[in-house]
From TrEMBL, chain A:
Pfam families: SBP_bac_1 (PF01547). Keywords: Signal. PROSITE patterns: PROKAR_LIPOPROTEIN. The lineage of its organism: Bacteria, Bacillati, Actinomycetota, Actinomycetes, Micrococcales. This is Carbohydrate ABC transporter substrate-binding protein, CUT1 family.
From TrEMBL, chain B:
This is Multiple sugar transport system permease protein. It is a multi-pass membrane protein. Coiled coil: none annotated. It comes from the Bacteria. GO terms for biological process: transmembrane transport. It is found in: Cell membrane. It comes from Agreia pratensis. The chain crosses the membrane at residues 23-48, 84-107, 119-139, 166-191, 220-240, 274-295. The keyword Transmembrane helix applies.
Amino acid sequence: MKRSMRIAAAALTAALFAVGLAACSPGGGSDTSAAGKPADLDAALSKGGEITYWAWAPAGEAKAKAFEAKYPNVKVNYVNAGSGVDEYTKITNALKAGTGAPDVAQIEYTAMPQFYLAKSLVDLSSYGFGDLKSDFIPGSWGAVADGEKVYGLPEDSGPMAMFYNQRVFDQYGITVPTTWDEFSAAAEKLHAADPNQYLTSDGGDGYFASSMIWQAGGHPYQVDGTKVTIDLQDEGTKKWTGVWNNLVEKKLLSPTPSYTDDWYKQLGNGQIAALISGAWMPSLLESAAPEGAGDWRAAPMPTYDGTAASANFGGSAQGVLSQSKNPALAAAFVKWMNDSPEGVKVLQDSGSFPSTVSDLKAPDFADATSDYFGGQQVNKILLAASETVPDGWQYLPYQTYAQTIFADSVGQAYANNSDLNPGLKKWQETLVSYGNEQGFTVTGK
Amino acid sequence: MAAVVASVSKTPTRTRRRLGIPIGWGFVTPFLVFFVIAILAPVVYAIYLSLFREQIVGGSGFVGFDNYVRAFTDPEFWAGVGRVIAFMIVQVPIMLAFSLIAALAIDSGRLRAPGFYRILLFLPYAVPGVVAVLIWGFIYGPRFGLVGSINNFLGAQIFTPLTPDWVLASIANISVWEFAGYNMVIFYAALRTVPSELYEAASLDGAGPLRTVMSIKLPALRGALVITTIFSIIGSFQLFNEPNLLKPIAPNAITSNFTPNLYAYTLSFAGQQYNYSATIAIVMGLITAIIAYVVQLRGTRKELA
């Protein structure tokens, strides 16, 4: 009997540990608003100090180093805390715990609202950041500003284009598609010629789906303060699923999940012959799929009716976290990174596509050639794409969570090679009920 | 008579009691401090959290047992519970049978180098779980992994370990590989405690190897079997590392509610639903404790019979 008690106690203790682990997330959000003034930035820079910067983009560390070189009395502790949602999880935990969050963090445009609505980001307008609006392209500025409030400065931007493997296209006699109908026909032709060959890959990605709907002219998420409307069956969405369903149902998309080793290998050896992606893709291809050097080209995104249209896909900003002990210095670092020639140059050297108007308009930017892309002037195509991004797009104030649960509903349609629309409806249902639980007023159409 | 005894023992009892209380507490305090801080406080805090609901808009409010009502009617949660139960029913017996046979084989004295096999089988347990899953992720890779190579060789997609139909079995396979050696060592240790006289007596009585296993070795292993079964059940209910690490390469097969722990993790760290997540953890902890206790009761009843 005694031993049995001991075993029961062991079982209970193990169960308690399980509960305890899940419980390490204390409550309480802080509402810190910096009441600074523009002059505070220079004062903070001359005074110096130490700040922590979390980012994962390739330019992150280089920016911190260049900033330290320029202002020797400032120390920037650069930390790569994981990319995207991995970093946000750590930031959210640190904010909950009340300590441990960085002063400055890289945050994707898609995740900005969830941080500023939770009052986790400092409103930088008191430092005069509102005046910087004209320095940035509207699409990127819209992601960091909410009315008069400015919660960060845009770093890179991601106008979409089609990147394709010329060698594979030549080998199988495929001409560069300019419409989605041509794109579907090419996908069928290529896969029929060799079952290991796919025109493109998509295993299900909520951000990609959103950008595709954006290009088709859809506005599935509409946000007005805390009032949210979700319509994942609007005209634009239907237009996109009209094309994409055909590819999904006929198994013409490589199901290899994006950003995995297998995926990069297929991009390098040409088994995935084209990607519809953001302006950050060329530098990613160059570093992660070096075998494809010289084979790849860029072209405008295929269209529905011949009218040029693109969308944004990805792109990040830097914001100052409300926990920062030195918001003025942190703001000065954000401003230097994204709104000074030296800061933006570091970004461009890493192959990213900037958001600053002056750098995008510079002649040597458009004329730059890429060896990976066979000497093509890739930036020209991306610049043209950035001009044709439909206006008025909005993301949900909880888009990161939406992305996390995309696989549960829409991903199942991808896995079963079936109609995406029921999956999108189910996704919408979950997003509506989640939003209402979180205190938003969400209606689903 | 009672009065006499009482009066005789009066003085020493008092002294012991006077000194005994502080000394006893002194011995217990180090453990108690650890217990309260590391085990009791988080549980109490989790229970406290589970009675509230914090929203992105509108802050935190007391909701009573709303979160529990929601948990008991949440199909996503129960789908995950069903999955780990299915996992447990299939994986635990296979793993323990494998461990048992391995332990009996090594203990039989008929192997040439038993120490070598013992270490070989135990080795996977020494590999960190995260690394093990990464290794298996590479093996399971449908394009360029080992499975991909075998499929290419056979000329068809025969093995698809990362599809929704097979992914649970693939995870079970990883778990068997990881933990069979650990359980084998427990069984082997229990077998070593069997006195050799028993074997001698058995062979004098004319018992063959099979009879020895059935009548001596298996009864000796009963206690170890109960313990390993309970630990394996708890392990099954806490399934998290394997699905979480395989998710990037099988995003559609491993949903965010694949196991209750993964669900609690997604709710808390991606959905910021700390309160509901704490509720899920408490409900899961209770279910685990109940099932472990039932198994333990049944196991010991057999032992007594």
